Amino acid sequence: MSDAGEIEYCHSWNSRRNRVGVPLSEAEARARNAAGEQFIAVLREKAGRQPVLVTVSGENGVITVTFRDRHGRQNLKYWFGTVDDDERLFLRTVMFWEYPSDDPKLRQSDATKVEDTSFRPDGYVKRVVMDSVEQVKETTEFNSVPVADNWEPVPEFGDYRSIARRERGGRPAGESADRSTN
User: Fold this and answer.
1) What range does the domain containing 60 cover?
2) 169 in a domain, yes or no?
3) 12, β-bridge pairs
4) Is 2 exposed, middle or buried (0-12, 13-18, 19+ CB in 10 A)?
5) Quick one: 62 exposed, middle or buried, by C-beta within 10 A (0-12, 13-18, 19+)?
6) How do residues 94-126 score in pLDDT, each as one tens digit?
């Protein structure tokens, strides 16, 4: 990610302060990766946008990618998991949080709308939208949905550009053209 910015590694992220909690050196993160232990790669763009957090949990074959809005609040998260051959990852879950205002002190639990979309490799999709303002929970299920854009190669250590793309083919579930990270 050298031309797009820098990568910082850590054991934990401090959401309240929007910064690295327990830092790791690249060598420590590389060792954790080799041992199948969890670590976080913090991807920072030169443009000063909010960092993208890539949490690698090698022991269970899961990688999560967390996007933050311009106020530093988590607003989009992807869960990838290995499927069968461990050579590829499949985007299994997308979650989107919508907040009632631009207040940067709002926490994830203050979100007024949460969209949880689950995908299966066979094209089955389940979308659950919980809206606390309207006090509605709506579940929609689909079959035969194209999921080609949900597949990713397992990234090599330090090469997280592809998996950390916010836009994945068409718009991710829960995101319209007027929503952005900045």
Assistant:
1) 5-153
2) no
3) 22
4) exposed
5) middle
6) 999 999 999 988 999 999 999 999 999 999 999
